[in-house]
Amino acid sequence: MDWPHDPDGEQGSEGGRKYGHAVLAKKIDEEEDFPLSATEYVEQYGDHPVRIDFETVVSVEEIFESVETEEFDDFVEFHQELGRVMRENGYWFYEGAAQFVGGDA
């Protein structure tokens, strides 16, 4: 795909290797951007690349296709919904994530 910037370049990885959820979160200013509209977020960043793993890159828009929340009140709500969506759609490859989801330790 033709991305607006290289997912592994400075703009895509912010000087270091950032994957998945971190790429989505870095586009937000916790103090300034809430409440945050999912529609406006996708309008602004929808065509941006998100590296999921060493061989997979998807668009912000593709990840947001399964987001059910239209407006996020705070950063925690944003993280929770995006984490849920990414796990349910196979975009979450963090080993050990299951121990933090659903209270199972």
Description:
This protein is an alpha+beta fold and 105 residues long. The chain has one domain (10-91). It has five helices and four strands. The chain has a two-stranded antiparallel ribbon. Strands 2-3 form a two-stranded antiparallel sheet. The longest helix has 14 residues, at 75-88. The radius of gyration is 14 Å and the shape is globular. Pfam families: DUF5785. This is DUF5785 family protein. It comes from Halorubrum pallidum.
How do the strands and helices of this protein lay out in sequence?
Elements: H1 10-13, H2 20-25, E1 36-37, H3 38-45, E2 49-53, E3 56-59, H4 60-64, E4 71-72, H5 75-88
Antiparallel strand pairs: 1-4, 2-3
Name the features.
105 residues; alpha+beta; two-stranded antiparallel sheet; 35% helix; globular; DUF5785
Let me know the largest β-sheet: 2 strands, antiparallel
State the separation between the terminal residues, measured CA to CA. 39 Å
How much is the radius of gyration in Å? 14 Å
Quick check: average pLDDT? 82
What's the arrangement of strands in the largest beta sheet?
1-4
Q: Tell me the fraction of residues in β-strands, as a range.
A: 5-15%
Please mark out the parts with pLDDT under 50 across 5 or more consecutive residues, or reply none.
none
* Number of contiguous helices: 5
Number of domains: 1
Work out the number of β strands.
4
Taken from the alpha-carbon principal axes, the silhouette is globular
Report helical residue fraction: 25-40%
Helix-strand makeup class = alpha+beta
